[in-house]
Amino acid sequence: MEINDGEEEEFEFSRNYFLAKEIAGSSKKSTRKISDINVVDEQELRAAAANIEPKHEKEINYLVNSYKRLYPKWAFELRCGFGLLMYGFGSKKVLIEDFASTALTEYSVVVINGYLQSINLKQVIIALAEIWWDDLKTKRRTSSGVSSKVQQPFNSRSMDDLLAFLHESDVEENDSFVCVVVHNIDGPGLRDSESQQYLAQLASCSHIRIVASVDNVNAPLLWDKKMVHTQFNWCWYHIPTFAPYNVEGTFFPLILAHSSTAQSAKTAAIVLQSLTPNAQSVFKILAEYQLSHPDEEGMPVDDLYTIARERFLVSSQVTLNSHLTEFKDHELVKTRRHSDGQDCLHIPLAADALEKLLSEINQ
Amino acid sequence: MRLMVIRVQRRCVKPSDFVNFLRGDLTSVIEKLKSLKKVGPNKSAGKPNGNMLYLIFDNLELIREWDKSSTALSFMFNLYDVLKMHELGLIFISNTSPDTYYSNMGYTEHVPVYFPEYTEDDLRQILMRNQPNRKLYSSFLDVVLRPFCRTTRRVDELSTAFSPLFRKYCEPLSDLASVPNEEMKRRLFSHFRPHIAPSLNEIFWVPSKSSTEAETNKDTTRKGSTRKSEVGDHFAQIDFHMSTSAKYLLISAFLASRNPATLDASLFDSTGGSDSRKRKRKASEKSIEQKEVAEQELLMKGPGTFPLERLLAIFQCITSAADSFDEDEHENDDLRAGGDGGLMSDVLLQLSSLCNANFIIKGGSCPLEGSTRYRSTVSEDLALKVARSLKFPLPNYLYRR
Amino acid sequence: MITSFAIPTFPEATGSFPMVTDATSKQLFTGLVLTKNMEFVDDLLTFEELGSYLKSQGCHVANLSSLEFSVKNGIGGCLRSILRQFLMITLDAADVSILATWYREQGSCNNPVVIIIEDLERCCGSVLSDFIIMLSEWVLKIPVVLIMGIATTLDAPKSILQSNALHHLCPCKFILGTPLERMDAIVEAVLVKQCSGFGISHKVAVFMRNYFVSQDGTITSFIRALKIACAQHFFVEPLSFMIWFLLGDDNLMLQGEKYGLSPEMMLKHALSLPSCQSIGSDKIAKQHGETIVNGLAELKKLQCQWSIVILCLYEAGKCDKVTLLDLFCEALDPDSFKSRAPDNGGGLENDSGGSRDCYKHQQYHTTRNSGFICQAVQKLRDLPAVQICKLLKGWEKYTVNVPQIHEKVKKLLSEVKSEDGKGSGQDLSTISKRHASRKHLKIEDSKAVNEKAAKLLESMVRNYMQPLECAAFHEIVCFKNVNALQTALIGDPRRRIQVDLLEVQNIIQCSCCSSSSNALLPSMHDSSILYTLAQEHGDLINLHDWYQSFKSVALRLSNKGKRGPNYSPSPKKRKATTKPAKPSEASIQARFCRAVTELQITGLLRMPSKRRPDYVQRVAFGL
């Protein structure tokens, strides 16, 4: 079912999109909620997730092995100055690292795990500068070739200085380079334009080569033509591996388990049960207020104090404050500013979760 | 009062640093002044003979654009109270009136001093200074000053506008030092007159070297224009090179910004053009009217934003439509990139190029998160030009053109 | 150049005070360079070289790109960059007075400071405006000339810069050549004039041209495509090192041994190339002797002739704005050459009737009776005598190495010159009827010359323009694999990743998942199942419903495909052979979660948010 089969295929996309938007507007939406799914206990879910049987193991291994015969071509293109960009469904981490450890043994390789939530690019560039400096020193036969410029230690230099250092190339042989492997160059920690600019400047150094993988379908949006054609110089390779995204997926919450309402309702119940009965009653006041005034931003502190005093739950503002601090520490309560300027207290749970919680406390 | 140039450069991070440094420097300056005064009142006239020290802040309105401008401004205005120096006077010069500086925070009342605009005579006197040929310039000002004064009375704008015009005015003259008589004045005026009106509206007038201008006059067979400035908008074609895909994307963005999203399905159905699809259900009169009102309002608001997916959907639609149109004309061509699949594959890069050229503005967040919205900034004129170069019937797709 | 009457003192020159009040002397000379190309990437090198040239003339040059004019860095960012380029140090607190001090210390103040801003449209308007205003206040102390590259039109500065900054500019415009002109120059220098011996096939050329014209539009990407083609060719074709021979290196055999190839192996490989096989091995032995060297020499000669004819065609086509790129692509077509060959009674004789076909402009395909070559030839018939003369002179230059054509060209040129001579003689006579008729005769004569020139060109095209793909051994030097080039140059992740998901079987080729119907089998990849299910929904997918559908697929009896000889009624055996039956609820939920995560990683879904906690949103619709 290739895209070239007939004109009907070509209109599929746009027709799908416009129809989908129309349907979304007109038809009745199914009103089922996530909570209607009987999610099993989280521990069990996580255990099951860890033990998922992989499918088509044999075929996947065969597929991945078939990519191994591309290694010499990739190494050749790296030497020619291109950057390699791997895309396709399935985790490519193992494949690329296998490539680096078999075909790139003569070069230094630095690996950036782009799938991590945050990445300190400056550290990476410092490491690269140090490696390159070491490489230069070992390659220079005569020590008089070493520049007499006093070398400031790398980690105290600014980003621009480091990049300028890496750009100056007075290497005689053209074949040596440092290879930077970036898993998921479109990962959440590298997506901002500043990081991509730094990576592009890095790639444009004459003795640095980049091998990267992307998973996002819209990855080319990260780059402009200067980056693609002159700095990164990407050669695209479509290598779907269908390997599971084990490492890359660890930072994504499980959609069924981590629906935050279920999660925090449970933790809230646990925390509340460990508090004193007075504290629980204070919390109850808050919850009842919130349930009966769903449109307001929360209960003003003064009102809470008044009601708590009426019910002899607290004797002074200090006591109330200590309860409130405890609630805030456990993230049971949040403070918001009212339009009058007063502080209001608000429980960050949905109404039904709150009801459930109340019923649990009352038991 | 004498102006002394004392150069001090220090970096301050906190306002308190600024105040401390300032106080220290001002005190030392005042000490110096006092000591100079003590030397003797009979010495040369270059001595300072007042007691006061004035700090002058020019272009105060620029502070309003800083971050935390309200605190900065109130800090500035309260400087006098903070420094507590009697010899100090503060003068603030601003382009905007004092009520733009009012804020919730209190400050010492200022004495407002208003400089009214220059009158025409004032302007004439100012502009005549330093002119080598006063009579000639005077006759020039007779011609231009009044119309330009209606637009602006600022000396800097007028002088920068007048200097190229004066050169043009003097073109027929062979001797720039000559004093014009009445007849010459009339001649100069008649030569110069067609240039006045256009230059009134031009803020930015770009001459080109006369040699290149002559060449372009030879190549393109347009009538010799008297103006040397670039007449880009009047050409019926675009001046710069764009790939076909970029052009289609530009048009798609223009349509996406211009048309409300509810119209898409009817405009862009599978035939990519006329609305031949029957509506599934008949909408009531009222809802049609409401829809129209809503769409009209949307039009008044200016170019709207759109998500990436909508842009790509429209793009695919119009490129497929154009393709099928082309294929009818030409014979079989198995060498061309099949259908619009060719154009779609690289379209994201073309989008970033269009953003870089300021044709499409991107909303702030990262594009991969999926919630970015784009907006087209292309004028209808340019969009029509681009569409014409592709032979694409853009007016058919515009909502209420 | 404005020169000053006095030199300011050092403190005056390096401080902000005294200030200039007169607006006209605060103006900065600005060169606006219209690049005529919406993309700025093609002109990066232009501005770099402009900077180098100006440096060689003694100016102090700083190149700035638009990234240094971002809101985040403000003026400080661009000042830092300028100071880094001039002073070679990085300062945290960059100030313009430092620049003034540095300039002052350079000694003679006759050399201006040139600041080149490469792409105006991408700069942040407010920062650039502030920068210009600041420079204008210091212009008497630091004589600055600005050069700004503008991609679109001259209206761009008006829309980007603030008006109080525009006042400070004293502009002058410069226009660069269009990308199409530059492309022609590149095609001429690199591909037509055989600078490297490397060639591309017709299909590859057409692909690259379409890519330039309709998709990418940058010359940079065209050159990059060529580089990728080179790399792929050299990797795949073992005999490709023989290109050195085409560049004049004769030690072919030695080279082969250096790479571990014996002469016999090389010959065997060469003779097994498709181009040799179609010609016939006995013919090769007759035409090319027994070595590859002769074959390559013949190829080189053919290429030279081919390039000469193209250059002559280009000369003719220039008058009608036919681009070299189009001519080049058309000339590479082996099919049209074969149809034009003399024994075919080729189509060019028919085009006197079909002349209308020749005037189609926006075409990219090459049928026999139309196309750019035909258009160029046709134009020849309409040229005035002066231009024919110029044209023929150009041809004379090009055809020096091919005596047969050269002779004919010289003969034609002398004819034209003599016509001119006759004509100029006539002009001296008085206007009379006879003169009028002689003038008419002269026109007739000159038309005859045009016709002869056209016929000459046609014969050149027919006989000497043999494209690379028609020669033997061309696979050694010619790159033909369009698909490989296309997939390496243009990644299409949007389409390909979705196709990966929806058509796993094509890639994995497993036996358990191939089904004639489109039904989803539980043995399929989880993410694939989920994504296929997602196609049935609209914009938003209800998680609950989606999960239920997934569950029902997962629970479908997986032994459907496995029925056959293994199926046995006895319960004991069934237990042993069939797979563990129903997956547990926990495992289905876990698989669902993981598959959703995988789809989220690919960016095809947007996760539930606070506003719509029960739905995921589809991002990409279809391919």
Task: Summarize, please.
The complex is a heterotrimer of chains A (363), B (401) and C (623). Chain B is mostly helical. Chain B is 48% helix and 5% strand.
How does this structure look, described?
Chain B: This is Origin recognition complex subunit 5. Chain B: It is found in: Nucleus. Chain B: InterPro entries: ORC5, ORC5_C, ORC5_lid. The complex is a heterotrimer of chains A (about 375), B (about 400) and C (about 625). Chain A has about 375 residues and is an alpha/beta fold. Chain A folds into two domains: about 55-240, 3-Layer(aba) Sandwich (Rossmann fold); about 260-360, Arc Repressor Mutant, subunit A (Orthogonal Bundle), CATH 1.10.10. Helices cover about 50% and strands about 10% of the residues of chain A. Chain A has a five-stranded parallel beta sheet with strand order 2-3-4-1-5, sandwiched between helices. A three-stranded antiparallel beta sheet of chain A has the order 6-8-7. In chain A, a hairpin with a 5-residue loop joins strand 7 (about 335) and strand 8. In chain A, helix 6 runs parallel beside helix 7 and helix 11 packs antiparallel against helix 14 (about 350-360). The longest helix of chain A has 21 residues, at about 5-25. Chain A is elongated. Mean pLDDT of chain A is about 80; it is low at about 1-10 and about 140-145. Chain B has three domains: about 15-100, no CATH class; about 120-205; about 245-395, no CATH class. Chain B has 15 helices and five strands. In chain B, the strands form two sheets. A three-stranded antiparallel beta sheet of chain B has the order 3-5-4. In chain B, strands 1-2 form a two-stranded parallel ribbon. In chain B, helix 5 (about 135-150) packs across helix 6 (about 155-170) and helix 9 (about 245-260) packs across helix 12. The longest helix of chain B has 25 residues, at about 15-40. Residues about 210-235, about 270-280 and about 330-340 of chain B have low confidence and may be disordered. By secondary structure, chain C is an alpha/beta fold. Chain C folds into three domains: about 10-175, Rossmann fold, CATH 3.40.50.300; about 185-475, no CATH class; about 495-620, no CATH class. In chain C, about 55% of the residues lie in helices and about 5% in strands. Chain C has helices spanning about 10-15, 45-55, 75-85, 95-105, 125-135, 155-160, 165, 180-190, 200-215, 220-235, 245, 250-260, 265-270, 275-280, 280-290, 290-320, 325-330, 335-340, 370-380, 385-400, 405-425, 435-465, 480-490, 495-500, 505-510, 525-535, 545-555, 570-575, 585-600, and strands at about 30-35, 60-65, 115, 145-150, 170-175, 200, 480, 540, 605, 615-620. In chain C, the strands form three sheets. Chain C has a five-stranded parallel beta sheet, with helices on both faces. In chain C, helix 5 (about 125-135) links the parallel strand 3 (about 115) and strand 4 (about 145-150). Chains in contact: A-B, A-C, B-C. At the B-C interface, helix 6, helix 9, helix 13 and helix 14 of B face helix 6, strand 5 and helix 9 of C.
